[in-house]
Amino acid sequence: MSAQPQAVPNGTKQTLTLGKALNAGLRRALEADPKVLLAGEDIGRLGGVFRITEGLQKDFGEDRVIDSPLAESGIVGTAVGLALRGYRPVVEMQFDGFVFPAFDQITTQVAKMHFRSGGRIPMPMVIRIPYGGGIGSIEHHSESPETYFAHTPGLKVVTCSTPHDAYWMIQQAIASDDPVVFLEPKRRYHERGEVDETTAPIALHQAQVVRHGSDVTLLAYGPMVKTCLEAAAVGADEGRFIEVVDLRSLSPIDMVTVSASVRRTKRAIVVHEAHRTLGLGAELAARLHEDLFYVMESPVLRVTGYDTPYPPSRIEEDYLPNLDRILDAVDESMSR
Amino acid sequence: MTNLIGHPDHGSFERDPQDMVQLLTPEGERVEHPDFAWCGDDDLAKQLLRDMVLARRFDVEGTNLQRHGELGVWPPALGQEAAQVGAAHAMRAGDHVFPTYREHVVCLLRGVTPADMLGIWRGTTQSAWDTVSTNTHMYTLVIGAQTLHATGYAMGLQLDGMVGNDDPERNAGVLAFHGDGASSQGDVNESYVFAASYHAPVVFFCQNNQWAISEPITRQTTIPLYQRAMGFGFPGVRVDGNDVLAVHAVTSWAMERARQGQGPAFIEAFTYRMGAHTTADDPTKYRLAEETEHWRLKDPIERLRAHLLRSGKIDDAWLAELDDEAEQFGAEVRAACHALPVPKFSEIFATVHAESTAELEAQREQYQTWADSFESIGADSHGAANGQGVSP
User: Fold this and answer.
1) Where in chain A are the domains?
2) What is the DSSP letter of B211?
3) Which helix (H) or strand (E) covers residue A56, if one does?
4) What would the 3-class secondary structure string for B229-246 be?
5) For chain B, which terminal residue's Cβ has fewer other Cβ atoms within 10 angstroms, N or C?
């Protein structure tokens, strides 16, 4: 395993956007390990269509920040070969809806290599995917494909919701000897927050209670964490004490943290942008019923995108979970 | 009914293309080619014959083992011995190979044991050999996916400074195998693009054995495959895939220019799949016996044997000794197959991840508790684990 990212005792605490925090985390990973490489479409000279890799090719060279031909399967497939050669490739899929040409390489090759080789061949690769909607974009640019990857044995799937997590989690994902699908909430790229280099991060696959409450637990991740925190703030004005858990890791799921929260509140609502059927909400509901059936006072509810393709952007606000839908679900949960 | 879309003409298979490198005719006559010369000596020629004979023996044993129920399935390489032996001999130890699942011959010559290959088809493993010490990647069953891995590995060799050095011993290249069917795959075409774009030291070795299960080469392409290479920006050569000397010469050339930093190349080894796609296939349903007979006359082993006998390099005693060696090898292969250990089911949880998860550990414990419950009542827990017992 590559060295775990360490706290910098005399480091900085500075306010960054989530996008800049990812850039800073990638920079530190490139500095820490000469085997770390970045590859993807437009990530070099342009710095990526979202500028997440801005300036990195200039500082680390074209051999370490590689502009790829426009072929997603080729990007991931060649990264497999680079990993076999001892490198730690970090590849960018330009948008969520464009990951599918690489689906075979990710689910059949990357995910299974360690297992198929009887544990002899690690596949330390990070597949970065900007995901989710709410940015008024054209189709295929607002999707939430996490379930496909969380359903695939061999992959780990994480997503950040704050600049601080973005900075640390990208470094932790790169240090992992397992392939990690790293989902970046693109509608939150410009959200600002403090990035603290001076304290060591919590474990990559650990969930975190980001707001304490006693009435109901909202289980969310990525772009929906902020939405849930806003809903909790509004709920507080109405006398609802809403707890919010940021899952951070979608595979594996930190059921210790999740169950501990729901054991306290006895009610759980899962919130995600992805389609409802067989989404993370289904898995969380199943596990909570296995663990806490006799503790919970109402069924696990889900506030999610619908089981439709992502709609045109002028009507996407009704597709995405919002404060009203979340607070309605809170009312429903509390009324049972 | 009239067909509205075009279909390949099954009656006009390409019998004797004129545009391929050949140094040994089907009759065993040595001929010269203006661009490619074979530089081996008599010892190497005899070694190539020996390797082809032993490889065929291994392949025949594989088919027989499947017929006897010892293997689930076997993909024969029958008829492709020259293509694989010639290519393997063009490799150096430090070069890396990415095989398809039919490269038994190549893998044997790379030091992979018969047992390690047979385990895949017997169902005891998905990959058993040490890919680092053999410099030979595991079999890939998704058609063509390995060509991208090969290209990425070749890019890694470039980054490691192992290409184009003045000292040739420091250089290495990659040989990526695929078939004629794979030439239609997106991944294969993407690998050509990446290899050309990065000037990667990878040689694509396509064994055009004329058939992708039941589909003839004319369904995959309307021009000779080697001509496609030009469109991707690197040289393509068609070689008589049943002529081990020509394959060795052409592959040696391609590998050396890759190691020296002159970029990728494409080799179309024009050969024929004499057997079925796998032992589960029935070629009589889709191809004519006449075609197979035509190719039987081009047998890769016969032509080298005839050449070496005629030129006095080998004699009947030498061949008898080789037969004995093949007999012994065959017995070793069968014994190795029977001795393959069946893994414990509980082991499958251990290697999903480099760092396992609580959920997977819980599933392992759940399985183990269930399996152990049969031992406590005296039942065979292994049988239970294989579905012969009751469900939990």
Assistant:
1) 13-196, 208-335
2) E
3) helix A56-60
4) HHHHCCCEEEEECCCHHH
5) N
* Reported ipTM exceeds the 0.90 cut: yes
* pTM of the full structure: 0.95
The pair of three-digit structure tokens given for residue A18, joined into one six-digit string: 């989530």
Interface A:B, Cβ pairs < 8 A: 140
Beta strand pairing status for A249-251 and A268-275? unpaired
Among A114, A141, A205, A272, the active-site one is A141
Contact (CB, 8 A) for B20 and B238: yes
- Residue B76: asked if its preceding bond is cis (omega within 30°), the reply is no
Determine the number of helices (DSSP H) and then strands (DSSP E) in chain B: 14, 7
3-state SS assignment for residue A171: helix
Task: Give the nearest chain B residue to A84 (CA atoms).
Answer: B153
CATH class of A13-196: alpha beta
Nearest partner of A127 among A40, A45, A42, judged by Cα = A40
Interface residue of A85, A176, A177 to substitute, partner B, most B CBs within 10 Å:
A85
Residue of B nearest to A253 (CA): B359
Answer whether B137 sits within 8 Å of A119, measured CB to CB.
no
- pLDDT, tens digit (0-9, with 9 covering 90-100), for B309-341: 999 999 999 999 999 999 999 999 999 999 999
Contacts of A119 in chain B (CB under 8 A): 350-351, 354
Nearest CA distance, B350 vs chain A (angstrom): 8
CB contact at 8 A, A73 and A104: yes
Q: Return the SS3 of A309.
A: coil
Q: Which residues of B touch A (CB under 8 A)?
A: 125-128, 130-132, 137-138, 140, 142, 145, 147-157, 159-160, 186-187, 190-191, 193-194, 197, 348, 350-355, 357-360
CA A255 – CA A146 distance, rounded (Å): 18
The closest alpha carbon to B175, from B91, B244, B112, belongs to: B91
Nearest by Cα to B27 from B290, B297, B319: B297
Residue A283's H or E segment, with its range, is helix A280-292
Mutation choice for B interface testing from A33, A106, A114, A117 by most B CBs within 10 A: A117
Q: Where are the domains of chain B?
A: 42-338, 345-385
pLDDT tens digits, one per residue of B239-283: 999 999 999 999 999 999 999 999 999 999 999 999 999 999 999
Tell me whether residue A141 is one of the annotated catalytic residues.
yes
Contacts of B149 in chain A (CB under 8 A): 77-78, 80-81, 84, 109
What CATH topology corresponds to A208-335? Rossmann fold (3.40.50)
Output the CATH code of domain B42-338.
Answer: 3.40.50.970
Interface contact flag, A122 B354, Cβ < 8 Å:
yes
